[in-house]
Amino acid sequence: MAHSSDGGPAPGQRILAVDPGLTRCGFAVVDMAANRTGTFVHVEVNGTKAHEALEHRVLAIMDAAETLMDRFSPDVVAVERVFAQNNAPTVVGTAQATGVVIAAAARRQIPVAWHTPSEVKAAVTGDGGADKESVNRMVVRILRLDAPPRPADAADALALAVCHGWRGGMSGMNAAAKTSTHSGSQPSSVRASGLTPAQQAWKQAEAASRQPKAPRAVRLPRR
User: Fold this and answer.
1) Known catalytic residue at 206
2) Which of 44, 119, 127, 153 is catalytic?
3) pTM of this prediction?
4) With contact defined as beta carbons under 8 Å apart, do 53 and 20 qualify?
5) What are the φ and ψ backbone dihedral angles of 98, each rounded to 5 degrees?
6) What does the H/E/C string look like for the chain?
7) Catalytic residue among 31, 80, 127, 156, which?
8) Catalytic residue (choose from 19, 31, 44, 119)
9) Quick one: how far is CA 31 from the chain centroid?
């Protein structure tokens, strides 16, 4: 499944977002202007069958990624980072698909960015625990689509692209605060600081990593 937009405003950044997987791998291309206005360019889902030889499945994902990179010349590749899953085969397949995508980007000297699912939800809706329907509704509004793309992997990739475009540099306007939800209200969890919860957590983690660690007290055994 693939569909594209032929035109749109001049982009500030072209983002190729990838929701990785061997069975289904979602790809989305979005142009993000300097004012954080997103324009839909292209979306597609490439998949392979579980009964196919692993080397052919991995090659198919790599070919799809390279074709899109050469066709759309993205400025950055945004990839979903999954920390843990209960299904080991799914984890392995996701890692294999991720590996060939980022290798294809590296070969073309395209920088790679990583975002977790909760970061994507928080950036798009203002709520890191939002459900897929809420995310899809916001993606439709943000990119001015007629309907959410199908299957779900396509919508996930578009949300990832929007997340990267809005979170870039951790500065500037908070696009979630400028966008209404499906009911016309603004996301309730947008803070006065202008950062979404995920952005705030990210900045706190960065600050903590720069803090000098206090030396540990050593307890000597009693004689």
Assistant:
1) no
2) 153
3) 0.72
4) no
5) -60, -45
6) CEEECCCCCCCCEEEEEEECCCCEEEEEEEEECCCCCEEEEEEEEEECCCCCCHHHHHHHHHHHHHHHHHHHCCCEEEEECCCCCCCHHHHHHHHHHHHHHHHHHHHCCCCEEEECHHHHHHHHHCCCCCCHHHHHHHHHHHCCCCCCCCCHHHHHHHHHHHHHHHHHHHCCCCHHHHCCCCCCCCCCCCCCCCCCHHHHHHHHHHHHHHCCCCCCCCCCCCC
7) 80
8) 19
9) 14
State in Å, rounded, how far the first CA of the chain is from the last one: 74
The percent of residues in the chain predicted with pLDDT above 70, rounded, is: 67
Q: For residue 31, list its beta bridge partners.
A: 14, 39
CA 118/CA 75 separation, integer angstroms: 24
Cα–Cα distance for residue pair 156/115, rounded to 1 Å: 12
* pLDDT per residue as tens digits for the range 172-201: 333 334 333 333 333 333 333 455 444 455
19 is annotated as an active-site residue: yes
Higher pLDDT, 73 or 47: 73
Q: Residue 106, Cβ neighbours under 10 Å: how many?
A: 12
Alpha-carbon distances, residue 81 vs 24, 160, 194 (angstroms): 16, 10, 24
Q: How far apart are CA 198 and CA 206, in angstroms?
A: 12
Q: How far apart are CA 117 and CA 104, in angstroms?
A: 23
Q: 52 an active-site residue?
A: no
